[in-house]
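Researcher: I'd like a candidate sequence for this fold, 220 residues long. If you have to choose between options at a position, lean toward the conservative one.
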């Protein structure tokens, strides 16, 4: 039987020992509850308020976040494994130094989010808004950025400076004015991507998939 938590006090008491497992948290504002350095296992958050939430150094596996408000939430140095973000709002989320492994983000708004110095392994950003997001100095391996609804992933003005990207799917992505200066791209699929005004100066491309026309309008 599923354990349901629906108040701030219930969540505080349940997470106090440092570990929360097998719970469903529904329609509660947790913006004043610190989840920093906690461990969450097989937990579902539905319509939970985490605006400016303190989740730094969180360890989570099989965490499901659905329709949650996470504007400016701090995931700094968190470790998320096999987690799902579904229809969440995470504008300006702070994910610096975090490790995301096998994480799926679907129809989540992450404009101006910070993934600087983060490691993203086998992550799928599907129909996720990433306008102005920063991946500076990050490692992205076997990640995909897709948008089945709009036809192109939204990464306009994203910052990939000095990032390492390996086996990343950016087909048809909107990379208008994105900055790849100093980045290393290995086997990255850029076919059909919009790179108008993108900055590729100083970037190293190794065995990447693209057509000459894909770089029209880009600075190289």
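Model: Candidate sequence:
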């Amino acid at each position: 039987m599923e354990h349901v938590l629906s108040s701030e006090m219930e969540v505080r008491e349940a997470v106090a020992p440092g570990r929360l497992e097998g719970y469903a948290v529904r329609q509660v504002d947790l913006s004043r509850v610190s989840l920093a350095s906690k461990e969450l296992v097989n937990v579902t958050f539905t319509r939970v308020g985490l605006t400016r939430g303190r989740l730094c150094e969180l360890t989570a596996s099989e965490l499901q976040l659905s329709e949650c408000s996470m504007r400016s939430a701090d995931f700094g140095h968190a470790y998320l494994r096999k987690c799902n973000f579904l229809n969440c709002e995470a504008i300006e989320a702070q994910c610096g130094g975090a490790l995301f492994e096998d994480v799926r983000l679907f129809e989540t708004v992450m404009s101006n989010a910070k993934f600087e110095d983060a490691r993203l392994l086998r992550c799928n950003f599907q129909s996720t808004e990433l306008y102005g997001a920063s991946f500076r100095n990050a490692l992205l391996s076997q990640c995909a950025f897709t948008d089945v609804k709009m036809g192109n992933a939204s990464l306009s003005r994203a910052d990939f400076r000095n990032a390492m990207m390996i086996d990343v799917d950016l087909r048809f992505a909107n990379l208008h004015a994105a900055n790849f200066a100093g980045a290393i791209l290995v086997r990255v699929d850029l076919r059909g991507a919009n790179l108008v005004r993108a900055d590729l100066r100083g970037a190293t491309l190794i065995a990447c998939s693209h057509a000459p026309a894909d770089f029209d309008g880009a600075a190289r």
